[in-house]
Amino acid sequence: MLFNSEQFLIFFPTVTLLFFLLPKKLQWLWLLLVSYYFYMSWNPSYAILILISTVITYLSGVYLGKVDSLPLSDEVKKRRKKLYVSISFSSNLLILFFFKYFNFFNESFVEVAQLLGIEVHGSRFNVLLPVGISFYTFQALSYTMDVFRGKILPEKHFGRYALFVSFFPQLVAGPIERSTNLLPQFRQHKKFDHNRIREGLLLMMWGFFQKVVIADRLAVLVDTVYNDPESFKGVQLGLATVFFAFQILCDFSGYSDIAIGASKVLGFDLMKNFERPYFSKSIKEFWRRWHISLSTWFRDYLYFPLGGNRGSKLYVYRNLMIVFLVSGLWHGANWTFVVWGALHGSYLVIEDYMNGIWIKYRFTIMNNKGFSSKILKVALNFMLVTFAWIFFRSNTLSDSFYIVKNLLVNNFSKLFGNELYTMGLDKQDFSIAVISVLFLLLIHGLQRKTSLSKWVFNQWMPIRWSIYIGMALIILIFGYYGEQKEAQFIYFQF
Amino acid sequence: MESRKRPSLYIFSFKALGGCLFLFLFTLLVNRFGVLLNEYDDVQQRWEYFYNLPENSLEVLILGNSHAYSTYSPDVIDAVCGIDSYLLAGNSQKMEQTYYNLKEALKYQSPRVVVIQATVLSGDSWKTETGDYRVYSNLMGMKFSWNKLKAISAQRPSEDYVGTLFPLLRNHNNWKRTELIGENLAREESGKKDDYRGFSPRVSEMTPKVMRQFDNAKKTDYSSFELGRLDLHYMGEIKKLSLKKGFKVIYAMSPKYPDIINPTYLSKHKVLEKEISNLGHEYIDYNMLADSIGLLPRSFENGFIEYQHTSYYGAVQVSKHLAQHLKDKNLIHKGHEGKDKEWIARMGTKPEYIIFNESRPKTSKTTLYSSEVDFKFLDSIVVDKLDIIKKQNGVYEVILQFKKNLDVEKLMQHKFYVHLYPDKKDTNIRDDRKEFGYENFDFIPVVLPRTRQNYYIIREIETEIVDVAKIDFGLFKSGSRSERLTLENIKLTKETD
To answer: Mean pLDDT over residues B156-171, rounded?
Structure first.
């Protein structure tokens, strides 16, 4: 069940209404049932995988908790804890590997062997990638790690823990929640709170706007170009890439806002996942603002255990590269994602290295805090990020290389006249696409200094209602939906 | 003194009320935009006119699908019976929809007879992914009601309930079609319209394509025909309604060329007859009566628009028979019978197939042709004057004014033929028309109860032809034809004057 489907329009209000009518004792059970129903609407058999993951990590937590009360030496306790953590991690990652990466590594192995002249026949498993497996696996693993590190006591209530892993708003595409934040919230009695509901619904509406009006419309042009890149050149490839930069932002940030908003309506607070990332002035800052729940996950559970910032620069750079290569692979079983991760890792290494030089030799080309300097940095950063998106979006590496090679071909005339509308979007849809992206940037710009939701809530009721209704009507009328089935969210495939 | 705390329930209720009001406003706007962006069609029009009828004004209500709206003319029934009837039909309608249409209609009207076109009994349901447009179209005009919700749930998969209920969700892309929005606004602003009873007259057209359709008309094997479970269920529900509300139900099967010539059709007829009579309802099968009402297989040329639906010519024959049947069996009140001025006035607005017994009203429409003709069709049927006027672009009226002392009885034994021959210019006729000779506007006249001795008849002609080589008028009956009245070189203007 997609957020942008008609079923969800019935599902969510029904779930919410009954949730608030139920007594505290049953609220968690209701949410658990509907979360599994939500997940099973894709494929009922997927529920077994999420259940296995839940049981393993739940038991790991229970056993980790028991170790402390055993009459054993600290050394043995530590070893035993590590054993439980290893079992939890290896079994979960094994499932993830099998469903997501087996075919990829198998095919890659066969290709490499063939290049070396060795004849190998690889077998391929015809399994569909379970929706959101990377998200809930990482969320469940973070719990094991948090119990191991003593950040949280093991959850004894299996039902509540199962709900933590499967909570439907963020189940299939995050934000990847931490047990320390979400688990305790399931123990509280959630009461009907008008203000929370209002805030949540406004956020959901903004999410729908990003997804249905912007992302799905931009996707038409992006798909036309990226599914047949050799039919396009220069400015067409550039336009599709810039459109993709906004498509993926609006698609994923839209999903996150709907998830956070829906949780808020139900009385739960999820972590923020996006913070106007294209306004970043450096790649480092970009990763503090883009997919925050994943980047902090990698920071806490991979980068720090690898050593983090400790040690020599070389050692730190190695850690950075490892994290971003893994992050690339996390996004998808394709070399294009690995290259995308490697590019971002390299950006960060080079940025850090250059920063060191700039500080050391006190280079000051311009006033670093000036407006023009900021604009320049934002623009440069956007270009770098957008360039990396080429690899992220391309279907194959050879497509990526074709696009990079032909990106600077001079064919600006294609931007004018009717040729612009041969890439999937007609004149009206193209206009709406551009206007809505500009509107998004305007909103992001305004959000730097003020909370727009607070501004809306402070307005006189008729104005407030006009804003709500106007926005909802804009989504319903100008949304790109209906002709085909609802468009999937990009991050569902991860 | 400690002030009393206001109960939290009060605040909650106030906010809940606000929320409800907000939802109401929002739904209203969504609905409004849904209508503005929707392509208005004849099914919606039938609902709109139905809701505008005076309450409990109908004697006969006709329900069904396209076969119903092409076959049963409420105007002819009303002219014969002197009553008010209405046809509430949609495209490819199935029994589920027909049942809920009836329930909805009974909230506003209390007819004595409900005629249900039997082709809705197909045994198939539209609760499939296909056929969406037709289900949407059937539901679009119905007001928001419990019946509408039930009709949706009976016909659409659950994931499409919201989309069916709110047309904006499926029509939102029409925001690009400014002309459509303009048309919808203009129609709303134009206010109320002519008397419309739901009938869609269709002109016979013998194009090569239609000829091939007749030649290749599929003969379905009905030897093992059975009614579907859903059909039987809804027939039973209609039976309950008829008992509760006290109306008579007639299932009528409109004639269909392939069925008339199909030797296995008798099996289907028998099954329907048995099931319908088991419920105590009446069944009239015009495939079986085709002979007696003059719709012979060889007459398909002017009895059917294509091999499935009846043409205007066939429709009038069937409607006359149905009307006479209602009258003969005393299923209706005596009706207006020329006493009710409003009814006479209403019938006076009807073109074609009705011979008016009043002096022809003066109109402000453009007269394209007017002539004293004094032409004798038969000895006692003399045309005094012939006018051609323009109603709107592509729609004209031919008016024949008869001499006093018209032999009505003799006239009624005949049918009119009106053949329009185009001048063969490339700009005048479509490619697919080049091979055929004329457009056929044959009709059977119906006479309103007489009060005076002045008679005239109007035949509406809807055509794309501009340059007419000639128009032939005449009377015919089996085996004989009258003299022919011919008008030559008529120029029909394309633009509104």
So the answer is: 85
A472–B170 C-beta distance less than 8 A: no
Residue of A194, A457, A468 best to disrupt the B interface, most CBs of B under 10 A: A194
Indicate whether A201 and A329 sit together in one domain.
yes
A346 pLDDT more than 70: yes
pLDDT per residue over A66-77, tens digit each?
Answer: 888 888 788 888
How far does B132 lie from chain A, in Å, by closest CA?
A: 13
How many domains is chain A built from? 2
Q: What is the mean pLDDT of chain A?
A: 87
B159 and A6 within 8 Å at the Cβ level: the answer is yes
Quick check: B22 and A483 CB within 8 A?
no
d(CA B236, CA B243): 11
Q: Are residues A158 and A260 in the same domain?
A: no
CA angle at B333 for the pair B330 and B339, rounded to the nearest 5°? 130
**CA pair distance B249, B239, nearest whole angstrom:** 8
- Residue holding tokens 């972590």? A271
DSSP summary character for residue A283: H
Stretch 410-449 of chain A: residues touching chain B, C-beta under 8 Å: 426, 428
Residues A229 and A371 reside in one and the same domain: yes
Question: Would you say residue A484 has pLDDT above 60?
Answer: no
Mean of per-residue pLDDT scores for chain B? 81
Work out the minimum CA distance from A242 to partner chain B, whole angstroms.
25
Q: Which residue ranges make up each domain of chain B?
A: 24-328, 351-491
CATH fold, domain B351-491, is Immunoglobulin-like (2.60.40)
A331 is catalytic: yes
Each residue's pLDDT tens digit, B263-296: 899 999 999 999 999 999 999 999 999 888 877 6
Confidence tier at A358 by pLDDT (50, 70, 90): confident
A455, A411: one domain: yes
Nearest to A472 among B12, B26, B175 (CB): B26
Question: H helices of B126-278, where?
Answer: 132-140, 146-155, 161-165, 168-171, 178-189, 208-215, 229-245, 257-260, 265-278
Contact B33 A477 (CB under 8 A): yes
Answer positive or negative: Cα dihedral of A383, A388, A393, A395. positive
Tokens matching residue B239: 């039976």
CATH superfamily of B24-328: SGNH hydrolase (3.40.50.1110)
Range of the structural domain that residue A167 is part of: 6-189
Query: Taking the CA atoms of chain A, what radius of gyration do you get in angstroms?
Result: 24
Say which amino acid occupies B410: K
Last residue of a domain, one of A164, A189, A214: A189
Q: Which residue of A has its CA nearest to B27?
A: A469
Q: Express each pLDDT in A419-435 by its tens digit.
A: 888 888 888 999 999 99
Q: Could you tell me where the DSSP H helices lie in B406-484? A: 408-412
Rounded to the nearest 10°, the torsion over CA A85, A86, A92, A94 is: 180
Calculate how close chain A gets to B347, using CA atoms only, in Å: 44
B233-246: average pLDDT? 95
Asked if residue A1 is part of any domain, the answer here is: no
Residue numbers in B near A435 (CB within 8 A):
none
CB contact under 8 A, A10 and B161: yes
Q: Decide if A482 and B172 are in contact by the 8 Å CB cutoff.
A: yes
Same domain, A163 and A233: no
Write the burial class of residue B11 (CB in 10 Å: 0-12 exposed, 13-18 middle, 19+ buried).
exposed
Q: Is B177 on the interface with A (CB under 8 A)?
A: no
A421's tokens: 């509308």
Phi-psi region of A482 (alpha: psi -120 to 50; beta: other; left: phi over 0): left
Cα→Cα distances B245→B110, B141, B279, Å? 8, 24, 16
Q: Choose the final residue of a domain: A139, A171, A189.
A: A189
Closest CA to A265 of A348, A200, A316: A200
